[in-house]
Design goal:
Elements (H helix, E strand, L loop, with lengths): L4 H20 L50 H5 L2 E2 L4 E8 L6 E6 L5 E5 L17 E7 L9 E9 L6 E2 L4 E4 L7 E5 L9 E6 L16 E2 L5 E2 L5 E6 L2 E6 L9 E3 L5 E4 L6 E3 L39 E2 L4 E2 L6 E5 L13 E5 L4 E10 L2 E6 L9 E3 L6 E6 L5 E5 L16 H9 L9 E7 L16 H6 L6 H14 L5 H10 L3 H13 L5 H7 L5 H16 L6 H7 L5 H14 L4 H10 L4 H11 L17 H22 L7 E3 L2 E2 L8 H4 L2 H10 L1 E2 L11 E2 L7 H14 L9 H10 L7 E2 H7 L2 E2 L6 E4 L3 E2 L17 E2 L9 E19 L1 E3 L18 E3 L5 E6 L6 E2 L9 E19 L13 E10 L1
Parallel strand pairs: 30-32
Antiparallel strand pairs: 1-24, 2-27, 3-4, 4-5, 5-6, 7-8, 8-9, 9-10, 11-12, 13-14, 15-16, 16-17, 18-19, 20-21, 21-22, 22-23, 22-24, 25-26, 26-27, 28-29, 30-31, 33-43, 34-37, 35-36, 36-43, 37-42, 37-43, 38-39, 40-41, 40-42
Length: about 950
């Protein structure tokens, strides 16, 4: 502790000299520092916040003496403070000022490194301006091959807290912004290193909430599906559009990776632990006890002295001020490179940025179940530690050069503003050390090993012939194999199918056979005979890959593999037997229950028993906290199940078993694909009208061999609602269910329709969404729904949401002005919810077991008014009661240039101080 004036002054003086040298003498460090530091002896002595009990665990024993501010070091200085096992070295490859606040990296097929720069993350302790459009995705190259990425461009700039970056072909990436719903494809068409083309890739992908709780890390799995954290689904691009399938809950926040067998590993965040890793996530969730070895949740960071732990003093290891229980985690990687010691291959790495460590995990599989062990636990250490309190490891990556890269945000605060509010223990520590002043920095590090030089071969896959890309599937570095597979699938070059088939069946390189098999699957060129041959392979791991790739064939309608799948339930390998059970569950094979029971009877392995029991009797879904997804009610599930039966009995003949359309020869389909269909997910009136009255002729210029969708108006409202609910919710689509009442309304409205619709005519009859950027939005009161959000009425159109910021009162209003008078069809919004004021989690409590008290901020009662001039108003319908969740209000074609929602009553006196909040606002008009 610095209790002595002269010692404090000396510490500040030395720090100032070091900082002055850092800024002035090193040309690559001419950074725009936003810090303003003050000597410890000039600071007021911190005191406990009002109402804090000094005997509470959060505060007991806290050091409140003035402290010298934490100051940033140069990369060279920081490097000297790293602690690594013998033989390992660490070196910077890219640092500030070139990049700021990096959160993740990714490499494209030419080895160029894309950096996700979250330039607005925690610039103040109140997360001010966190959602301003000033973040970016930059792209960097090491053109002189000296190991440093010296040449870069802002590939996509002016982004709102982007969620991920996934290279998706030559000069192309996928990304999305916070509080948004769409994933976009950005392409550099002229080769200048900056994206100049933006296209919608897929929608219905986002969610609202704290920026630490939204989806992240869009990731290309070995199975050719794209996965993300938080979202319980996967997506995939096909010739007929982007499709999706539901998966289990991954319970992750920041990080996805896969191993040599293609199994995905998801990284938790607030838990400080890996989240889901036992089995591939698309098989659903399995609860496995004792996944972590004893003591796994104890971090062994180096002394940092600050004790800046969000959980308070009971999470501080005394006397060194380090973290005594993991509380945050970010960025993961199963190391699959070839330029570090061989015993690192297959080891799992992740960062704990609160503890300032990178952990190495050894996964041990026993009887089909995995237990994770901290490799350095017995030594009370970690793979990588630092005594620099600004070291913030947030991402790990196997690089093209065969080494391991660490993304270090090098930041003062690593906890979002919702948990750093005034009066908290963490805020006290932030202000004590002026951590909020250390912003705008960031480093990417390379870890190497003595005697093992990095691979200096520069990837150039986008210029290579497909036949040469196939050869990369034999590469000892998993990054090369992954990227070669992805480029081949993106090219859709079927000329290499014979080469891939030979490799899959005969190569002596097991990883190459695995990748060849999945590349065939990605090209749609995997033959049943190949899968059947590999189901009899001597290698259990290759038999597992045959089962998994064979699922695509079965889903597409090839049932000849059913017998092979059932035979695998009796495989002598425990791992194959478990995979066969998972495959049988996923495909809903006939006789599933009997087959699972037989498998369990034939094996004493713990994994077979656990998987079998949980397939037969699924465990109750855990409380997902902020990472869950709304479950369908029992009635909704029954409706979707009824619709599934209708679809498979009738609709699948033309539209395909999986909704991808039935092939009719010559590249044509018998009927349009419904999976991933924007039409099916758009306003429900489109689908209802088509089913009731039929559709014929070209659709957006494309003709189909079937020619005609017959009218089904003789069916009941319930029948139509059931089948459309299944299509909108169960065939790679993610849209609301349809009620019989909605069908009845459209049926009545279209009673005069004669014959089938033509698409061009029908499209003009369907309500269309008015784009928010064309509207003038005002409100009587305006606040963000969360700390650090945008204070704008227009936020109601986003996932962030708008709020009055104060208790609901009669007369509060929200107003829209349209560019011209329109015929209003419908108004939709989601009533936002917030965490009850004053609530905080119990220190050490797992996220999954938390019961979070939410307050429902829906408008209790309101009227809708319209105007032609913004001065004279009249009500267009009786008082409306808001509801929690989705609110849909029909406007019946009312013509107006202004629309106003106005509260018609005060909040009940016995209610909490509940504001009026809205998000995902949509306004529909009609021709």
């Amino acid at each position: 502790m610095l209790k002595n004036f002269s010692k404090a002054s000396l510490a500040i003086a030395l720090g100032a000299i070091a900082l002055s040298s850092f800024i002035g003498s090193n040309p690559i460090r001419q950074i725009r520092l936003q810090q303003t530091f003050f000597a410890a002896d000039t600071l007021p002595k911190p005191t406990l916040p009002e109402g804090a009990n000094p005997e509470d665990p959060d505060w007991k024993g806290i050091d409140l003496d003035p402290k010298a501010p934490v100051q940033p070091l140069t990369p060279a200085e920081e490097a000297r403070l790293f602690l690594l096992p013998p033989g390992y070295k660490i070196e910077p490859v890219l640092t500030e000022p070139a990049i700021q606040q990096p959160a993740a990296i990714s490499f494209d097929g030419n080895g160029r490194m894309y950096v996700l720069e979250l330039r607005t993350y925690m610039l103040t302790a109140d997360s001010k301006d966190e959602l301003q459009p000033t973040s970016r995705i930059s792209r960097w190259e090491d053109k002189n091959n000296d190991g440093v990425y010296e040449t870069g461009t802002a590939f996509v700039d002016n982004l709102i807290f982007p969620r991920f970056v996934l290279p998706y072909g030559k000069g192309c990436i996928l990304t999305m912004e916070s509080d948004a719903d769409n994933v976009y494809k950005y392409t550099d068409t002229n080769g200048d290193g900056k994206a100049d083309k933006k296209e919608l890739f897929t929608n219905k992908y986002g969610r609202s909430g704290n920026v630490e709780h939204q989806q992240a890390f869009l990731y290309w799995g070995m199975d050719n599906w794209l996965y993300s954290t938080v979202n319980a689904f996967r997506v995939r691009e096909t010739p007929n559009g982007v499709i999706r399938e539901k998966t289990g809950f991954n319970r992750a926040q920041w990080g996805i990776t896969h191993d040599d067998n293609g199994k995905l590993w998801f990284q938790g965040g607030a838990s400080g632990l890996p989240s889901y890793f036992q089995f591939p996530i698309h098989y659903g969730n399995f609860e496995v006890p004792n996944e972590f070895a004893k003591g796994f949740d104890v971090p062994w960071g180096a002394p940092v002295k600050l004790a800046d732990m969000q959980g308070g003093m009971d999470e501080v290891r005394q006397p060194d001020g380090s973290l005594n229980r993991v509380t945050g985690a970010a960025g993961n990687d199963v190391y699959r490179g070839d330029r570090l010691p061989a015993d690192l291959k297959g080891q799992y790495f992740y960062g704990e940025p609160v503890a300032r460590i990178v952990r190495q995990i050894n996964p041990i599989v026993t009887e089909g179940l995995t237990t994770l062990h901290n490799v350095y636990q017995d030594q009370k250490s970690e793979f990588l530690r630092s005594t620099d309190p600004l070291f913030r490891p947030v991402d790990m990556t196997t690089a093209p050069d065969g080494t391991l890269y660490i993304t270090d945000m090098y930041h003062g605060i690593i906890q979002e503003g919702q948990w750093t509010q005034k009066g908290t223990y963490l805020r006290t520590k932030i202000e004590q050390y002026q951590l909020d002043k250390v912003v705008g920095l960031g480093r990417i590090w390379r870890i190497t090993y003595e005697g093992k030089e990095r691979d200096k071969t520069r990837p150039a896959m986008y210029a290579e012939k497909s036949a040469d890309l196939v050869k990369h599937l034999t590469h000892p570095n998993g990054w090369w194999r992954d990227m070669a597979q992805q480029v081949l699938v993106q090219r859709n070059d079927l000329s290499v199918v014979p080469q891939l088939t030979t490799m899959a069946l005969t190569s002596k390189n097991s990883p190459a056979r695995t990748h060849a098999l999945w590349t065939l699957e990605g090209l749609g060129a995997l033959k049943t005979s190949v899968a059947q041959k590999m189901l009899k392979d001597a290698s259990p791991q290759l038999r597992i890959q045959a089962l998994r790739t064979g699922e695509s064939l079965y889903k597409a309608g090839d049932k000849t593999l059913e017998g092979d799948f059932k035979q695998a339930l009796a495989d002598p390998s425990t791992d194959v037997q478990i995979q066969a059970m998972l495959t049988a569950k996923f495909l809903k094979l006939p006789g599933l229950e009997e087959g699972i029971k037989a498998a369990m009877a034939s094996s004493k392995a713990a994994g077979v028993k656990l998987v079998g029991e949980q397939i037969l009797t699924p465990p109750k879904q855990r409380n997902m906290g902020p990472f869950g997804a709304p479950e369908l009610s029992a009635n909704q599930k029954a409706q979707v199940e009824r619709g599934s039966l209708i679809y498979n009995e009738l609709c699948s003949q033309c539209h395909g078993n999986n909704g991808m359309g039935t092939p009719a020869g010559n590249g044509r389909l018998l009927a349009p694909a419904l999976a991933g269909s924007q039409h099916m997910q758009a306003h429900p009136d489109y689908a209802i009208r088509v089913v009731l009255h039929g559709l014929e002729g070209p659709i957006e210029g494309k003709t189909y061999a079937g020619g005609l969708m017959a009218s089904m108006k003789e069916q009941s409202d319930e029948w139509v609602a059931d089948v459309l609910s299944y299509i909108r919710n169960g065939l790679s689509n993610d849209a609301s269910l349809i009620s019989p009442q909605q069908v009845a309304r459209v049926r009545h409205k279209t009673a005069d329709q004669k014959g089938s619709y033509q698409y061009a005519h029908l499209s003009k009859l369907i309500p269309y969404e008015l784009q928010p950027q064309t509207l003038q939005v005002t409100a009587s009161h305006t606040a963000s729904t969360r700390i650090g959000g945008n204070v704008s009425p227009a936020s109601a159109f986003t996932y962030e949401g708008w709020s009055t910021g104060k208790r609901q009162e009669k007369g509060m209003w929200y107003q829209l002005e349209f560019p011209k008078e329109v015929s209003l069809a419908e108004l939709r919004f989601t009533a936002s919810q917030t965490i009850k004021k004053g609530w905080k989690p119990t220190p050490g409590q797992p996220m999954a077991s938390m019961t979070i008290p939410f307050i429902q901020n829906y408008p209790r009662a309101f009227v809708l008014l319209v105007s032609s001039d913004g001065q004279t108003w009249h009500e267009i319908q009786p008082e409306t009661k808001g509801v929690s969740g989705d609110n849909i209000i029909s406007l019946n074609g009312t013509k107006a240039k202004f629309l106003k929602m106005q509260l018609s009553e005060n909040l009940a006196d016995d209610g909490d101080d509940i504001p009026w909040s809205m998000s995902q606002l949509k306004v529909f008009a009609q021709e």
